[in-house]
Design a protein that fits this description.
Layout lengths: L1 H20 L3 E5 L4 E9 L3 E6 L2 E6 L3 E5 L15 E9 L12 E12 L2 E11 L3 E12 L5 E14 L3 E13 L2 E32 L2 E17 L5 E17 L1
Antiparallel strand pairs: 1-2, 1-5, 2-3, 3-4, 6-7, 6-14, 7-8, 8-9, 9-10, 10-12, 11-12, 12-13, 13-14
């Protein structure tokens, strides 16, 4: 688990340095044209811009505005992206008493901007707990800055849909009351239970590092709570609660 967290932090730092080296400016010309690229030279008479494999030279009189914001026709007026698609992989570490100490978790969500730095979306994924589940959830995310490297807080809430329809249990206790004695005794008869799934929520905090205006990475740490229900014959019902950490590395497309 420590290796995963260390790898994620290292990846974010490398991406942050790369993003600074790849920083691009947006040059708006008075004739209505827009050029995005790296400023190679700026003086009182001209501006030299490298865009892709081309180099452009403009006179200062031709330039209307130079900005570092990532503006596109589909972007909002303040430069923030109106949407993003995010995929995350990670683990859900639990106590040593769990059968699976760090089960695998994957999710993907499509998110839209509600207002400045606040996003909401819908997503789904896979959680490999004691059983396998498909979490369907609402995703909320608030970014503290509109910049290439920013902390954020997030929240996922939804329902775990079981991928394993039935599970087998072995053993339990039954109660008997025969005068003058009464007690609980163990039994070893197996039974089949229906997996009904249940609720889940996952608050988290982390960091986002944008490599460029279309690609970024995220690292998050949070708390994952899940409650699932199993039902059997004779109105039998079993409730299982999972309290786990969540450590996830994500890729952001926009």
């Amino acid at each position: 688990m420590k290796k995963i967290a260390l790898l994620g932090v290292l990846l974010l730092l490398v991406c942050g340095v790369s993003a600074q080296r790849m920083k691009k400016e947006v040059i708006y010309l008075k004739n209505g044209s827009v050029v995005k690229g790296q400023l190679v030279q700026v003086d009182d008479e001209k501006v030299v811009v490298r865009s892709a494999r081309n180099t452009w030279v403009f006179n200062q009189a031709e330039i209307d505005t130079v900005t570092s914001k990532w503006l596109r026709e589909t972007d909002t007026s303040d430069g923030a992206k109106p949407w993003f698609f995010k995929t995350s992989v990670g683990v859900l570490p639990g106590g040593s008493g769990n059968t699976k100490e760090s089960p695998f978790s994957f999710d993907a969500s499509l998110n839209v901007r509600l207002f400045r730095n606040m996003y909401a979306g819908l997503g789904a994924g896979i959680d490999l707990l004691e059983e396998s589940y498909l979490p369907a959830f609402v995703n909320l995310e608030y970014r503290f800055r509109d910049s290439r490297f920013t902390p954020f807080i997030g929240f996922q809430g939804g329902y775990l849909l079981p991928l394993d329809g039935e599970v087998n249990t072995h053993g339990g206790y039954y109660y008997y009351d025969i005068m003058p004695y009464s007690s609980y005794w163990p039994y070893y008869q197996s039974q089949t239970l229906d997996n009904e799934g249940g609720l889940m929520f996952n608050p988290s905090l982390g960091f986002i590092s944008q490599v460029n205006d279309n690609l970024g990475f995220s690292l998050s740490f949070g708390y994952r709570y899940s409650q699932v229900t199993f039902t059997g014959d004779n109105s039998y019902e079993l409730e299982t609660n999972y309290n786990r950490l969540s450590i996830k590395l994500g890729i952001i497309f926009n």
